[in-house]
Amino acid sequence: MNSINFSTSLHRIAKTCTMFRPKNSPDYISSKQLRTQILTDPRFAILLCAVSEAFVIQKQVWNCRELSNISWALAKIDFVPNPDTIPLPPSRRQQQQSNSDVDDNIGNSQDNAILMSAKKLRESDLLAGSSKKQKTKSSDEEYAKLHKQWISQMRILGAHLLDGIALHMQHKLLPSFKSQELANMIWSLAIVARGDVPRLRRFSPQELNCLGWAYAKLGAQKSQEVDMLFEGIGNEVGKRIRFFSSQDVGTTMWSFATMGYDHQTNVFQTAASRVTIKDAHYFKPQELSNAVWSLATVGITPSNPNVFDTTLFSNSKKMLMDTLKGRKDVITECFAAAAIEIMKRPSAFKEQELKDILWSFSKSGIRYPELFKSVAQHVLGESSLNGNVEKGRLKDFSSQGIGNFVWSYIIGTRFCRRRTIDWWG
């Protein structure tokens, strides 16, 4: 068998093991039962040995997709032990601190660990003896108990193989990985808590936001695994939002919106609760623009969009204060905080950030004349009382940026016309 056959075999076994089956089908078997059958089948152990040995002997023939599929399969079957059971190999940083040859030492020691584990599994009396047994459906539980030691050795081999693949990827193949292959590798390591990627509950807020950002930036396709990962990140956001910095908040919201997880409204609500008028000055312009852009992209808007419109609604300021009092609507306050900061320090905002905030207000159906006037004066320049003209920034904008600005103002005008008609009947 070659590398393609090996990777395809493991990938299909893992896919079959976790495939949904309707309970009313005549040949129904639960995923748990099927997984037990696979792990207690000596042919699977022999296949794992062969894959491991082939990986060590012929690393150069394995491509990124094949290694990604094997890692995915090992994580999907979920029989690889965590670092508390099988210690992780030395990290690159640890090797550098010991002044040793990083790539050679790590690679050789890991290859030896893989080959030794495969040899022990092949020479196991239990494995040799089990291949002669005829296993029946009624003996599944007894068979699994009988071969506990064999399965334990197989789990150790799986851990060493996954570590070896991760090291080989990091040192030799990382630039060659496509976004989906890299996403699968990261997911695999995160699920089984190996490599330098612990389980999500051990991630710091910065590591959580970086992980989500990497998937979104690479354009990873949504899948069951990616959905599970972002659901896990979302759970951690809900538990630990008070520890998230302004950058963590903005980037996490951007990642969820970019990946299209509109249904996880709790994540956006929780993250937006950190963007307050009181603390907005701690946020960088990009973090503020990411926050409101994300809300507008997934369609989460203030409960009353009229609270910012002082031209049509004379009591809008009172409505806004009533809304913000007691933090009744964190989404409204998030938009208000971004608007206040952009009017306070417009020069700090880049073209993209100005555009994104105005676009977010228009996309969300929020008309805020004071904000739009302030930005227009800053961009176009404004005549002062003594007749001098402050130079604007429009000449520095790209053609696309100008077009987006015009679109935002046109949409705002439409809202004005529509609400005037509604107001006057």
Structure class: mainly alpha
Assembly type: single chain
Binned, the helix content reads 55-70%
| Spatial gap, N to C terminus | 77 Å
Provide a descriptive summary of the structure in words:
By secondary structure, the chain is mostly helical. It has 20 helices and no strands. The radius of gyration is 28 Å and the shape is elongated.
Question: What can be said about this structure in brief?
Answer:
With 425 residues, the chain is an all-alpha fold. The chain has 3 domains: 3-177, no CATH class; 199-274, no CATH class; 285-425, no CATH class. It contains 20 helices and no strands.
Layout: helices, strands, pairs:
Blueprint (H helix, E strand, L loop, with lengths): L2 H15 L13 H9 L2 H16 L6 H14 L14 H6 L4 H22 L1 H6 L9 H7 L1 H26 L5 H14 L12 H14 L5 H17 L5 H14 L5 H8 L12 H14 L17 H9 L5 H15 L6 H13 L5 H12 L18 H26 L1
Helix pairs in contact: 1-3, 1-4, 3-6, 3-9, 4-9, 4-10, 6-9, 11-12, 11-13, 12-14, 13-14, 13-15, 15-17, 15-18, 18-20
Feature tags:
3 domains; disordered C terminus; elongated; mainly alpha; 425 residues; 0% strand; single chain
